[in-house]
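User: Fold this; tokens only.

Assistant: Input:
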Amino acid sequence: NNQTGRWVLPFRAVWTPGSDGAVIGSMKREVEVFDAAKGTLAAKLSDAERMTAIASRFAVHPTRNIIAAGTASGRIHIYR
């Protein structure tokens, strides 16, 4: 349920480079990584102090374990 009364861009999930997982945001200001084969949550990435908006756009580095998460406030958060 994303009926918060706040303006939030629609979430856009992205596949990991090997297509073995998917990355998407959550209303709790977290980045969630799901295992594509099992359909389970593999990791939650967050930084409550710095991420003050909900991330809805993502990019995954093709060869390194790096995820970039963009928010509607114009900030990019990098997770390694």
